[in-house]
Amino acid sequence: MAAAALRISEIFHSLQGESTRVGLPTVFIRLAGCPLRCVWCDTAYAFTGGETLTLDAVLGRVATYACPTVCVTGGEPLAQANCLPLLTALCDAGYAVSLETSGALDIGKVDARVSRIVDLKAPDSGEADKNRWENLALLRPTDELKLVLASRADYDWAKKSALTGRQIPCPILLSPVWDRLAPADLAQWILDDRLNVRFQLQLHKILWREARGR
What we know:
Layout: E1 5-15, E2 25-31, E3 51-54, H1 55-63, E4 69-73, H2 83-92, E5 96-101, E6 115-121, E7 144-149, H3 152-163, E8 172-176, H4 183-192, E9 198-199, H5 203-208
Parallel strand pairs: 2-4, 4-5, 5-6, 6-7, 7-8, 8-9
Antiparallel strand pairs: 1-2, 1-3
């Protein structure tokens, strides 16, 4: 397993910008490659390229930061088969591990110790047809469901398709697309509709705009 290889876009230490862990110092492992092409994607640089590293090399780099919290992200991390042993190895090493995934791929084989942040794609992303709806039935209280919204139409879709008639056992996070949907508008819609969700902004963009490695 130590020789398992992964294509890594970057590994860096920052503050978690999203999820219920927002603000928490975190080591991010960004895997390269993604089968989706969301029109508002802010990590398109991770679609290609990357450095090939063994699992041991990845763990070694993570250890240099002496940080107990790790987030595996992308791209779409589950597009690489060796993402699964990476997640397990991180948990075995004692880290608190989260996975940021588009939800287009099966999350059922992810180590049960990992908190899965599933990013369900709304229509304005251009990739809503890639959503794997079966994943919603796999969510646990330790997971999170995220919807990034670019318009009122996206918001109405989220209410109808994801939030109505479903028993979601974990936190639900609604985010506005940076520079496309006014945060105050989304906040007001949530309040007007009395939704039991968490509104969130991308803290890393507020602090560092579009800087990589942040």
